[in-house]
């Protein structure tokens, strides 16, 4: 049993089987309750925003979804099938890719090398098997195709070192990498936090393109205008619980902040 019963969700949810579903997740750290019976559903082609004040449990929730933490109670389902992630590699292997705020890109490598970071391709034949030579031309070709598929106009040359890119372009590289390998879910942690207005808009457009390609996205953000611009539904965390799940159509930004801070209930 969870420590405190989860709030009743007032907003109708989409129909069908969720791509990713968390049921009654509990995570404690000694006497500190990180998550208290939190449930979440993410559907195909949906942008689900997760908002909450500091200490609300957003990071703990995402870490439980991505294998960084193992929940004490509750369950995770991917396409309706029960899954158990014991480490981030398990979630990545299942098709859940996460872009953290610090990006984790390698500045000295070019765009293509960053897209395949940790998944480098070897050349066919003896060159790859015996001498372990990288298939740089093949990776660059596939990187160009991925960038074009997502309509990222700011990344014309995949051979440019990431250290020469702007903050928005680096974010686009990280998102493109997640989209290339996150066959099920892409999770974005504060993707516009350190960006200016123009570059933030480029990232928001990229999120919308992911939705157009039917890639479901979980967006963690403190920026309410950005959340209300791209989110289909908004999961509100408060004090380790899900306070509500709302939509931009059913609630205003003021309503969302009030629920988040405890000044109002959904």
Automatic annotation (TrEMBL):
Presence of the UniProt keyword Transit peptide in the record: no
Keyword terms: ATP-binding, Nucleotide-binding
Residue ranges constituting the ABC transporter domain according to the UniProt record: 20-264
SMART domains: AAA
GO molecular function, one term: ATP binding
Gene3D superfamilies referenced in this protein's UniProt entry, alphabetically: P-loop containing nucleotide triphosphate hydrolases (3.40.50.300)
InterPro entries xrefs: AAA+_ATPase (IPR003593), ABC_carbohydrate_import_ATPase (IPR050107), ABC_transporter-like_ATP-bd (IPR003439), ABC_transporter-like_CS (IPR017871), P-loop_NTPase (IPR027417)
PANTHER family linked to this entry: CARBOHYDRATE TRANSPORT ATP-BINDING PROTEIN MG119-RELATED (PTHR43790), SUGAR ABC TRANSPORTER ATP-BINDING PROTEIN (PTHR43790:SF8)
Name the record gives this protein: Sugar ABC transporter ATP-binding protein
Species whose genome carries this gene: Microbacterium ureisolvens
Higher taxonomy: Bacteria, Bacillati, Actinomycetota, Actinomycetes, Micrococcales
